[in-house]
Amino acid sequence: LVQITVAEELGMERGRAADKEAAEALAAHDYDKARVKALEAQNNFENVLAIDAADDEAKQGATDVGVLRGKIEADEAAWKRSEADRRKKEEEERQKRERDKQVSDKLTVARARLSEADTAFNGDQYTRPVRKQYEDAREAFRDVRNLDETNKEALDRITRIDAWLGEYDKQIKIVEQMGEIARLLGEAREIL
To answer: Could you tell me which of 67, 157, 49, 162 has the C-alpha nearest to residue 106?
Structure first.
């Protein structure tokens, strides 16, 4: 009988200690340790109950550990979801930073191309090479819009370049018409 009482006390002591360690591990989000310690506590309380099925403290300990084991599983599942959400958010932020950098890099290129075209135009140079430079600048700003559809600078610059290209087409028509007029005048002079 003394041996049984000593075994019960030892089982209860071990069960309480393991239960406490399981709760501490849970609080520290160490779910593997929490599961192991909760199982250890459960086994100790069940061993006491195998010796004395009427031991109320062992019954309560076993019940409490059962609840703790459920809490460990639920807490771990919630933690994994929140960890997955955190990782997803970090990845989205990383992708946004990367996209912002790409937009910035492409804007730098587009601005440089537009500046080169403006320099080559010099206010009155309606030539095919200048037109090509403006078209290249427009494409560079379209590359920006492909990454960021709402980029106001790119939209404004594309609109400005399209207006320049429209003016270019008008100027070319005027030059062609002037050439045609000059040709017709030349023919008229020959006839007279």
So the answer is: 157
